[in-house]
Protein backbone atom coordinates (compact mmCIF):
# COMPACT_ATOMS: atom_id res chain seq x y z
CA UNK A 1 0.00 0.00 0.00
CA UNK A 2 1.76 3.16 -1.23
CA UNK A 3 -0.49 6.12 -0.64
CA UNK A 4 2.20 8.76 -1.11
CA UNK A 5 4.47 9.44 -4.08
CA UNK A 6 7.49 11.67 -4.47
CA UNK A 7 6.52 14.29 -7.07
CA UNK A 8 8.86 15.10 -9.91
CA UNK A 9 10.30 18.58 -9.72
CA UNK A 10 8.85 21.08 -12.21
CA UNK A 11 12.43 21.99 -13.22
CA UNK A 12 15.84 20.32 -13.54
CA UNK A 13 18.05 19.91 -10.49
CA UNK A 14 20.45 22.55 -11.80
CA UNK A 15 17.74 25.06 -12.81
CA UNK A 16 17.67 27.09 -9.58
CA UNK A 17 21.40 27.81 -9.42
CA UNK A 18 22.95 29.97 -8.10
CA UNK A 19 20.19 30.49 -5.51
CA UNK A 20 20.01 26.72 -4.86
CA UNK A 21 22.79 24.55 -6.24
CA UNK A 22 22.20 21.31 -8.10
CA UNK A 23 23.80 19.31 -5.28
CA UNK A 24 21.68 21.01 -2.62
CA UNK A 25 18.44 20.58 -4.57
CA UNK A 26 19.15 16.96 -5.50
CA UNK A 27 19.89 16.06 -1.87
CA UNK A 28 16.85 17.94 -0.58
CA UNK A 29 14.41 16.38 -3.06
CA UNK A 30 15.77 12.88 -3.69
CA UNK A 31 16.90 12.14 -0.13
CA UNK A 32 15.07 14.29 2.42
CA UNK A 33 11.69 14.62 0.71
CA UNK A 34 11.87 11.02 -0.49
CA UNK A 35 12.44 9.89 3.11
CA UNK A 36 9.20 11.55 4.25
CA UNK A 37 7.33 9.78 1.45
CA UNK A 38 8.88 6.40 2.28
CA UNK A 39 8.23 6.85 6.00
CA UNK A 40 4.61 7.91 5.42
CA UNK A 41 3.99 4.82 3.29
CA UNK A 42 5.68 2.50 5.82
CA UNK A 43 3.66 3.97 8.68
CA UNK A 44 0.42 3.66 6.70
CA UNK A 45 1.23 0.00 6.13
CA UNK A 46 1.88 -0.57 9.85
CA UNK A 47 -1.46 0.98 10.72
CA UNK A 48 -3.23 -1.12 8.08
CA UNK A 49 -1.49 -4.27 9.30
CA UNK A 50 -2.53 -3.64 12.89
CA UNK A 51 -6.14 -3.17 11.82
CA UNK A 52 -6.04 -6.29 9.63
CA UNK A 53 -4.76 -8.26 12.64
CA UNK A 54 -7.50 -6.72 14.78
CA UNK A 55 -4.77 -5.30 17.02
CA UNK A 56 -4.57 -1.93 18.69
CA UNK A 57 -2.90 0.78 16.64
CA UNK A 58 -0.04 2.34 18.59
CA UNK A 59 -0.96 6.05 19.01
CA UNK A 60 2.68 6.97 18.33
CA UNK A 61 2.17 5.79 14.77
CA UNK A 62 -0.39 8.53 14.20
CA UNK A 63 2.00 11.22 15.42
CA UNK A 64 4.80 9.86 13.22
CA UNK A 65 2.43 9.61 10.26
CA UNK A 66 1.29 13.20 10.77
CA UNK A 67 4.91 14.40 10.84
CA UNK A 68 5.89 12.55 7.66
CA UNK A 69 2.73 13.33 5.67
CA UNK A 70 3.01 17.01 6.60
CA UNK A 71 6.69 16.96 5.58
CA UNK A 72 5.71 15.44 2.24
CA UNK A 73 2.88 17.90 1.62
CA UNK A 74 4.90 20.98 2.61
CA UNK A 75 7.85 19.93 0.46
CA UNK A 76 5.51 19.31 -2.50
CA UNK A 77 4.14 22.83 -2.08
CA UNK A 78 7.66 24.25 -1.67
CA UNK A 79 8.78 22.87 -5.06
CA UNK A 80 5.72 24.44 -6.71
CA UNK A 81 6.64 27.78 -5.09
CA UNK A 82 9.97 27.88 -6.91
CA UNK A 83 10.67 28.93 -10.49
CA UNK A 84 14.02 29.54 -12.21
CA UNK A 85 12.42 32.59 -13.86
CA UNK A 86 10.61 33.69 -10.71
CA UNK A 87 11.21 36.45 -8.26
CA UNK A 88 10.27 40.08 -8.49
CA UNK A 89 6.89 41.16 -7.21
CA UNK A 90 3.47 39.61 -7.75
CA UNK A 91 0.79 41.42 -9.67
CA UNK A 92 -2.99 41.59 -9.89
CA UNK A 93 -5.22 40.23 -7.15
CA UNK A 94 -2.32 38.74 -5.19
CA UNK A 95 -0.48 42.06 -5.06
CA UNK A 96 -3.70 43.82 -4.00
CA UNK A 97 -4.30 41.28 -1.25
CA UNK A 98 -0.71 41.59 -0.01
CA UNK A 99 -1.10 45.37 0.12
CA UNK A 100 -4.46 45.09 1.90
CA UNK A 101 -3.02 42.64 4.44
CA UNK A 102 0.45 44.12 5.03
CA UNK A 103 0.32 47.70 3.74
CA UNK A 104 2.79 46.98 0.93
CA UNK A 105 4.69 44.17 -0.74
CA UNK A 106 7.86 45.45 0.95
CA UNK A 107 6.22 45.12 4.38
CA UNK A 108 5.08 41.59 3.58
CA UNK A 109 8.54 40.60 2.41
CA UNK A 110 10.13 42.12 5.52
CA UNK A 111 7.72 40.34 7.89
CA UNK A 112 7.96 36.98 6.08
CA UNK A 113 11.76 37.23 6.11
CA UNK A 114 11.71 37.98 9.84
CA UNK A 115 9.58 34.91 10.55
CA UNK A 116 11.79 32.71 8.35
CA UNK A 117 15.08 33.86 9.83
CA UNK A 118 13.98 33.67 13.47
CA UNK A 119 12.58 30.14 13.49
CA UNK A 120 14.48 28.24 16.15
CA UNK A 121 15.54 24.80 15.04
CA UNK A 122 13.55 23.18 12.25
CA UNK A 123 10.53 24.63 10.55
CA UNK A 124 8.90 26.62 7.81
CA UNK A 125 7.72 30.15 7.17
CA UNK A 126 4.24 30.16 5.64
CA UNK A 127 1.81 32.58 4.06
CA UNK A 128 -1.83 31.72 4.68
CA UNK A 129 -5.06 32.98 3.18
CA UNK A 130 -8.04 33.13 5.53
CA UNK A 131 -11.28 33.33 3.53
CA UNK A 132 -13.30 34.27 6.60
CA UNK A 133 -11.27 37.45 7.04
CA UNK A 134 -10.27 37.81 3.36
CA UNK A 135 -6.73 38.46 4.55
CA UNK A 136 -3.29 36.98 4.41
CA UNK A 137 -1.36 35.94 7.49
CA UNK A 138 2.22 34.81 8.11
CA UNK A 139 3.03 32.09 10.60
CA UNK A 140 5.89 29.77 11.45
CA UNK A 141 5.32 26.03 11.22
CA UNK A 142 7.44 24.18 13.76
CA UNK A 143 8.89 20.96 12.38
CA UNK A 144 6.22 20.04 9.82
CA UNK A 145 3.02 19.64 11.73
CA UNK A 146 2.92 21.94 14.74
CA UNK A 147 0.51 24.62 13.64
CA UNK A 148 -3.16 25.30 13.88
CA UNK A 149 -4.67 28.03 11.74
CA UNK A 150 -8.42 27.39 11.38
CA UNK A 151 -10.00 27.73 7.94
CA UNK A 152 -6.77 29.01 6.38
CA UNK A 153 -5.12 27.73 3.23
CA UNK A 154 -1.35 27.68 2.85
CA UNK A 155 -0.27 29.67 -0.21
CA UNK A 156 3.51 29.94 0.10
CA UNK A 157 6.08 28.10 2.19
CA UNK A 158 9.80 28.42 2.73
CA UNK A 159 11.68 25.46 4.14
CA UNK A 160 14.20 26.70 6.69
CA UNK A 161 15.33 23.33 8.00
CA UNK A 162 19.12 23.19 7.70
CA UNK A 163 18.82 20.42 5.09
CA UNK A 164 17.27 23.01 2.74
CA UNK A 165 20.28 25.33 2.64
CA UNK A 166 23.33 24.11 4.55
CA UNK A 167 25.40 22.90 1.58
CA UNK A 168 25.04 26.28 -0.13
CA UNK A 169 24.83 28.74 2.75
CA UNK A 170 26.27 26.89 5.78
CA UNK A 171 24.83 28.59 8.88
CA UNK A 172 23.80 31.78 7.06
CA UNK A 173 20.05 31.22 6.90
CA UNK A 174 19.41 34.89 6.13
CA UNK A 175 21.35 34.61 2.84
CA UNK A 176 19.22 31.62 1.85
CA UNK A 177 16.03 33.52 2.63
CA UNK A 178 17.24 36.50 0.58
CA UNK A 179 18.00 34.16 -2.35
CA UNK A 180 14.51 32.63 -2.06
CA UNK A 181 12.93 35.94 -3.10
CA UNK A 182 14.74 35.68 -6.45
CA UNK A 183 13.03 32.38 -7.38
CA UNK A 184 9.50 32.66 -5.94
CA UNK A 185 6.83 31.45 -8.35
CA UNK A 186 4.25 34.21 -7.83
CA UNK A 187 1.81 32.89 -10.47
CA UNK A 188 1.58 29.58 -8.57
CA UNK A 189 0.86 31.46 -5.33
CA UNK A 190 -1.81 33.55 -7.09
CA UNK A 191 -3.41 30.42 -8.53
CA UNK A 192 -3.85 29.01 -5.02
CA UNK A 193 -5.89 32.07 -4.02
CA UNK A 194 -8.05 31.65 -7.12
CA UNK A 195 -8.76 28.04 -6.08
Strand content: 5-15%
CATH superfamily name of the largest domain? Iron/manganese superoxide dismutase, C-terminal domain
Got a strand count?
3
Order of helices and strands: HHHHEEEHHH
| Largest β-sheet summary | 3 strands, antiparallel
**What is the overall silhouette?**
globular
Termini, distance in Å?
30 Å
Helical content (DSSP H or I, runs of 4+): 40-55%
Describe the structure.
The chain is mostly helical. It folds into two domains: 59 residues, Helix Hairpins; 103 residues, Iron/manganese superoxide dismutase, C-terminal domain (minor pseudopilin epsh fold, 3-Layer(bab) Sandwich). The two termini are 30 Å apart. The model has no long low-confidence stretch (mean pLDDT 95).
Structure summarized in a few sentences:
51% of the residues lie in helices and 12% in strands. The chain is globular. The protein starts with 21 loop residues before the first helix and ends with a helix.
In terms of topology, how is this protein built?
Blueprint: H1 22-52, H2 59-80, H3 92-102, H4 105-118, E1 123-130, E2 135-142, E3 153-159, H5 166-169, H6 173-180, H7 186-194
Antiparallel strand pairs: 1-2, 1-3
Question: What key attributes describe this structure?
Answer:
Helix Hairpins, mainly alpha, 3 strands, 195 residues, minor pseudopilin epsh fold, globular, 7 helices, 2 domains, 3-stranded antiparallel β-sheet
